[in-house]
Design goal:
This protein is α+β, with helices and mostly antiparallel strands. The protein is built from 5 helices and 6 strands, in the order ααββαααββββ. It is globular and about 45 Å long.
Length: 187
């Protein structure tokens, strides 16, 4: 999860909203393992590990790949008016799992609370159910021939330090660049 300290130290971690306090971060992690379909991961706008409460629809995570020149600090080294948002596409699910691991390590939640069913519900099922989207609606073709589940593995996947467009015109810096996270594959 993005913290206020992250955004202050690293302009490439600056996004909105930021969980400002320890209590905010604990509440977010606890909401994930609550098991209630009222809390689910959104993929709409902003980053962090944003949670949507079904009684108050809010924005969720939309990977925000701002070009590197829009994120660089001012000449005096301060953040200034840089673009708010982080590029997380491709790593978001692993980053959610990382946040749950941190929560377990610090005792905010327990391993027993972090079940496959709870995580799957939070990341996928609860949001689909809230918006009444059938599980198969995003898949084209025969469901039997499509991969419909994911496998997360700790294989030491490293988030790249930057990504450049195929024409070389745009460079973006991913959130948590250079850090290890979970790898994701379809099964």
């Amino acid at each position: 999860m993005t913290t206020f300290e992250d955004a202050e130290k690293d302009t490439f971690s600056f996004c909105k909203p930021i969980p400002k306090t320890l209590a905010d971060r604990i509440a977010l992690v606890q909401a994930v393992v609550d098991g209630s379909s009222k809390f689910f991961f959104g993929k709409v706008k902003s980053h962090s590990m944003h949670i949507i409460h079904s009684n108050r629809p809010r924005k969720g995570s939309d990977s925000a790949p701002h070009p590197i020149e829009n994120k660089k600090p001012n000449k005096d080294g301060k953040r200034g008016a840089c673009a708010a948002g982080v590029f997380s596409m491709g790593w978001t699910t692993g980053l959610v799992i990382d946040a749950l691991e941190i929560g377990t390590c610090y005792g905010w939640i327990t391993k027993e609370q972090t079940t496959r069913e709870v995580v799957e519900g939070f990341l996928s099922r609860y949001g689909r159910e809230f918006y009444r989207v059938p599980a198969s609606s995003s898949l084209s073709g025969d469901l039997e021939s499509r991969n419909t589940r994911i496998r997360l593995e700790r294989e030491g996947r490293i988030i790249p330090r930057s990504i450049v467009s195929s024409d070389g015109e745009i460079e973006v810096v991913p959130f948590r660049r250079g850090e290890k996270t979970w790898s994701l594959s379809w099964i």
